[in-house]
Design goal:
The protein is of the alpha+beta class. 74% of the residues lie in helices and 6% in strands.
Length: 281
């Protein structure tokens, strides 16, 4: 526990020194202020009677139920937050392992009576806590603004936040693996975004498999789908959870994509820990 607390303090101090915390706060606050100022609603007797978007009047046919309005707002915002939080988290945490392996810095870390396994895992958890704090800040602020403007809210947005943290944890584990191997922040960022982007078209793996000219190619697509993190599947689940009963069938929460993504997370973190323990500095 002492090792974890020390690494949390070290990661947050490092983030403050490298302006990461300030950038995190500025970008998140800018998005919150933009959303708060962009949308103005006229609510009468629990229904939407009028609305303005960026100061321009939006036509409202009849009256729209506030419950439907809140569900619509939260579902769209959950997808935006999914992309925004994941994008910022990778940038904010990809340097944690490469910088730790700098000459002089790693000597200081290894001089402490702490095992390498505890060192890298506590650094991972500290980085995840940094990313989670930003997710919590954004979601809480958006939830409060929606509740303030509509006088209605539901907690499903926070459940979506848990799924966002899960995909961040998965991509962070891969970034840590690349960081341990290459000791390069730039390569960690590029490879993490590359694997996320590459996994996106695999959401339609069944169609791609059907279009393959050979059975071997179809099996390769299937293996890639079940090996890589399910970025789109989990993003769809985020949308579906917030939408609730009115969610499309394809956004239904399925266990298999989460289990395979969790397996990818554990495998990357285990391999990163193994390489770090065997690496010579």
């Amino acid at each position: 526990m002492k090792v974890l607390i020390a690494n949390i303090e070290d990661v947050f101090r490092e983030a403050a020194a490298r302006w990461t915390l300030l950038a995190y706060f500025f970008l998140s606050t800018f998005f919150i202020v933009l959303f708060a100022s962009a949308v103005n609603l006229d609510v009468v007797n629990g229904a939407l009677a009028g609305a303005k978007l960026f100061g321009k009047q939006v036509e409202v046919s009849g009256t729209l139920s506030i419950e439907k309005l809140v569900t619509g707002f939260d579902s769209v915002l959950s997808v935006i937050l999914y992309a925004l939080c994941t994008f910022m988290a990778v940038f904010a945490t990809a340097h944690l392992v490469p910088r730790m392996q700098d000459k002089g810095t790693i000597d200081l870390y290894l001089s402490r009576p702490v095992s390498r396994l505890k060192l890298i895992l506590s650094r991972y958890l500290a980085g995840l806590l940094l990313a989670t704090s930003n997710v919590l800040y954004l979601i809480t602020a958006i939830w409060a603004i929606v509740a303030w403007k509509t006088h209605m809210s539901h907690p499903r947005l926070f459940v979506a936040g848990a799924l966002i943290v899960f995909i961040i944890a998965t991509l962070m584990a891969f970034a840590f693996l690349v960081g341990v191997i290459t000791s390069s922040t730039g390569v960690s960022i590029m490879m993490t975004y590359a694997i996320a982007l590459f996994s996106m078209p695999l959401f339609s793996h069944a169609r791609i498999e059907a279009a393959m000219s050979s059975e071997v190619s179809a099996w390769m697509i299937k293996i890639l789908y079940w090996t890589l993190p399910k970025v789109i599947d989990i993003g769809m689940a985020v949308f579906g959870i917030v939408m609730g009963d009115k969610a499309p069938a394809e956004t239904a929460l399925k266990l298999a994509p989460f289990l395979s993504t969790a397996g990818f997370l554990v495998a990357c973190l285990a391999l990163a820990s193994w390489v770090f323990q065997r690496k010579e500095f």
